[in-house]
Design a protein that fits this description.
The complex is a heterodimer of chains A (about 425) and B (about 325).
Chain A lengths: L3 H7 L27 H44 L18 E6 L5 E6 L5 E6 L6 E5 L4 E5 L11 E6 L5 E5 L4 E5 L5 E7 L2 E2 H9 L7 E5 L4 E5 L6 E3 L9 E6 L5 E7 L2 E7 L1 H5 L10 E4 L12 E6 L5 E5 L4 E5 L5 E5 L11 E6 L4 E6 L4 E6 L6 E6 L12 E6 L4 E6 L4 E6 L1
Antiparallel strand pairs in A: 1-28, 2-3, 3-4, 4-5, 6-7, 7-8, 8-9, 9-10, 11-12, 12-13, 14-15, 15-16, 16-17, 18-19, 19-20, 20-21, 22-23, 23-24, 24-25, 26-27, 27-28
Chain B lengths: L1 H18 L39 H9 L8 E2 L4 E2 L26 E2 L2 E2 L2 E2 L31 H4 L17 E2 L2 E2 L21 H6 L27 E2 L28 E2 L1 H4 L4 E2 L35 H7 L2
Antiparallel strand pairs in B: 1-2, 3-4, 5-10, 6-7, 8-9
The chains are: A alpha+beta (about 425), B alpha+beta (about 325).
Chain lengths: ~425, ~325
């Protein structure tokens, strides 16, 4: 049987085009052309050398460009894999111009509340879509962990606003559970505030005559039961606690550790001020902080219609983002109405104020949810002065789609919950 | 084009002119004065990004700014089908005062703490066909404006001729007149019923083939189907009041409670969405079957108010 290999060896070689090497050719006449002179030969050699040099330079340039391209691509993919924000901006500066967009934190669904740890290194975000968790990020936007009320499924909870006290405890209002859940800085559940003078731990303790060490408990309004488990025993239930109707919503601490809470229950929309001493020693078996409350529902001056965030300035004046009344109302700490602003039209007019934050210079930042922007007022003087607005509606970087809450850190960074864009935007002065 | 622009401009002018005389039930949904600033809450005259001069492209997202699960601007949380605050004291019966004050219309995402098993898609993402929009149960696409179904397809955020009606149901839905009376004006509460005559008209605007009101419809062939009658006064016996007596802890609401005791579409169905569990035969067909009109193997809960076919048993008690 003939081998094909032998056939291959017999195949004629394909002619290969080779470059002519003119410098090596003898100066003999070809087809009647005149012979190449010695001078021409020198010129040709010089030209060839120059050509080679040009090629070398071109090759070097191409290599450099390729290297540059590789660097750019490398940086791009490195950034895409792990986005890094721009370097830290200058601390809060004594200027009154709008901040600029820096970057966005993704990985959440319809966030409405945002807060920071005391050192500003953790960002707590309450999401009302998806799994409805409180999600925690570092200040570069990297996810750390998340948490939720114990023994609840996502349809049973609705975390809205968050406040972190000076010790790092995290307070989260929940609209569906009508409660304030309290966690430690790492998201470990501590207790639930059921009303202005009752916590779940206190209720369980009163029912059981004390709480054995290691006892776990939770309360669900959907089941209308309190569940508890004493170590070594079967899970048991208690009847629901009887508490007056309240609907905790907006929540903020002042620098003194006092807690300001808005309540949109029934016919009385109001503000509660929980005094610091009663909160600092808690959670214990007794929850009896001193609480001062004021306010009623309505549209007249000094009345509330879905107040969201209440906070104080350095002069202990209380500002309430009076949501559906489209204004900020101002009070003293004894509940005396002082003045209001933001109604009407023109610069500084508010449509639907929700979240708010006061910086160290008494500049009040107010999130206008349907205005799709943040309005900033200087409230350090006897009357508020509108400074500027930043933001507009949109889906791109630096644009908002129903923003709802804002918090500032001590370096001039602003974190803004951008609800329908499913992100927290980071801006900086 | 010029004609269209003229009509559009006229509509805008008329709308703005009528704002001062609009009447509804207060809050952002009405009670406007001539110098109201409420318009700016939702509209922009020159910089709107959505139709009807809305500041948003999504009507659903706009409504959810107040009526979403966060409840930052309203107690009517339609995402979870939950009234977030104090319940009304003017109760009509057990069916209307269940624990945790669930809304009588249900929820779009969850209901009674459970993920919905069927719901109307009000996000405006589609202009789907509607069951019973036609002579048979094989639905055809409804004629909602711009073919997208959203909150404003059924509700008028400015109030409507149906006022007083705390649910701000539109006077015209899908081209059909909808007259809804409310018998519980004093209560004005979403967790109580307060339904008057005409509730079925709202559903019939798109699901008209099911709107059979004559006696004996259940035994009268209409086209190719027999249909349960609605808008009928239900003379229940002493122990069969579906609102208060019910069956084994299940109850149903009636329109015009205590007077005509009317069975409406909403007696058995939740307009927003239901988390009722469907098992066994009630599941309807093979797992994974679609839910589009015309597909008789649908597996969802068809907006039914109660698990499986409890809506039948509560009244008929077989």
């Amino acid at each position: 049987m003939p081998r094909k290999v032998s056939e291959k060896t017999e195949t004629p070689q394909t002619p290969v085009e080779t470059e002519v090497e003119p410098v090596q050719a003898p100066p003999t006449p070809v087809d009647g052309q005149p012979p190449i002179l010695e001078a021409d030969k020198v010129d040709m050699e010089q030209e060839i050398k120059e050509e080679e040099n040009r090629r070398k330079r071109l090759l070097l340039l191409l290599l450099l460009l390729l290297l540059l391209l590789c660097c750019v691509c490398g940086l791009f993919f490195s950034y895409m894999m792990k986005p890094k924000p721009l370097p830290e901006m200058v601390p809060v500066v004594n200027v009154n111009y709008p901040p600029h967009y820096v970057f966005s934190i993704y990985g959440m669904d319809q966030p409405v509340g945002v807060a920071l740890s005391p050192d500003g290194k953790r960002v707590y975000v309450a999401e009302t879509g998806g799994d409805r968790l409180v999600k925690v990020f570092d200040r570069d936007g990297n996810p750390l962990f998340s948490f939720a009320p114990p023994n609840t499924s996502s349809p049973e909870r609705s975390p809205v606003y968050i406040a972190v006290d000076q010790s790092g405890r995290v307070f989260v209002t929940d609209r569906l559970q009508n409660s304030i859940y309290v966690y430690d800085a790492d998201g470990k559940y501590l207790d639930t505030i059921l009303s202005t003078d009752l916590s779940l731990m206190e209720y369980v303790s009163s029912q059981l005559g004390g709480i054995p060490a290691g006892t776990t408990f939770h309360y669900s309004v959907f089941e209308n039961k309190v569940h508890y488990t004493v170590p070594g025993q079967e899970p048991k239930t208690l009847p629901p606690p009887e508490v007056p109707q309240w609907d905790p919503l907006g929540i903020r601490f002042d620098n003194g550790g006092n807690l300001f809470l808005t309540d949109v229950s029934g016919q009385d929309h109001k503000v509660h001020r929980f005094m610091a001493p009663g909160l600092e020693i808690w959670p214990t078996l007794y929850f009896k902080p001193e609480v001062f409350s004021f306010g009623k529902t309505g549209q007249n001056p000094g009345e509330f219609l879905y107040p969201n965030i209440a906070l104080v300035d350095s002069q202990n004046r209380l500002y309430v983002a009076d949501g559906n009344n489209g204004r900020i109302s101002t009070w003293d700490l004894e509940g005396k109405f002082l003045f209001e602003f933001g109604e009407g039209t023109g610069d500084g007019a508010l449509s639907l104020p929700r979240g708010a934050f006061m910086d160290e210079r008494d500049r009040l930042h107010v999130v206008d949810a349907v205005g799709q922007n943040i309005k900033v007022y200087d409230v350090s003087g006897p009357e508020p002065v509108f400074l500027f607005t930043f933001g507009d509606w949109g889906l791109d970087d630096g644009l908002f789609n129903y923003p709802n809450d804002i918090v500032l850190d001590q370096n001039g960074r602003l974190y803004i919950a951008d609800r329908e864009n499913n992100r927290v935007q980071v801006w900086s002065y | 084009m010029k004609k269209f622009l003229f009509v559009f401009a006229l509509a805008v002018i008329l709308t703005l002119a009528l704002v001062g005389t609009a009447s509804a039930n207060g809050g952002p949904h009405g009670g406007y004065t001539a110098t109201t600033d409420a318009c700016a809450g939702c509209h922009r005259a020159h910089t709107a990004v959505g139709p009807n001069l809305l500041i948003q492209t999504s009507t659903y997202a706009l409504c959810m700014t107040c009526h979403g699960t966060a409840g930052t601007g309203a107690d009517t949380n339609v995402a979870d089908g939950f009234f977030l605050s104090t319940r009304s004291t003017s109760t009509h019966g057990t069916a209307n005062t269940a624990d945790n004050a669930p809304l009588l219309a249900g929820g779009f995402t969850n209901y009674k703490g459970v993920v919905v098993t069927s719901s109307h898609d009000a996000t405006g993402a589609s202009g789907r066909a509607a069951w019973g929009n036609g002579l048979t149960n094989r639905g055809v696409a409804v004629n909602i404006s711009d073919t997208q179904f959203n909150c404003a397809s059924c509700h008028d955020p400015h109030g409507s001729a149906n006022y007083p009606n705390y649910r701000i149901v539109k006077a015209t839905v899908n081209g059909a007149a909808v007259a809804v009376a409310q018998v519980d004006e004093a209560a004005k509460d979403y967790d109580t019923e307060g339904w008057g005559a005409g509730q079925s008209n709202l559903c019939a605007a798109c699901h008209g083939a099911y709107h059979k009101t004559a006696a004996g419809q259940g035994s009268t062939l209409d086209g190719t189907t027999y249909t349960h009658r609605v808008d009928m006064s239900y003379a229940y016996g002493a122990n069969a009041n579906p609102e208060t007596f019910g069956m084994s802890g299940y109850f149903l609401p009636l329109a015009e409670s205590g007077t005509n005791n009317t069975v409406a579409c909403q007696t058995c169905h939740l307009p927003h969405g239901s988390s009722a569990a469907m098992t066994g035969i009630a599941n309807g067909g093979p797992t994974g079957a679609g839910t589009v009109p015309g597909d008789t193997t649908a597996t969802d809960s068809a907006l039914l108010r109660l698990d499986n076919r409890a809506v039948c048993e509560v009244c008929h008690q077989k």
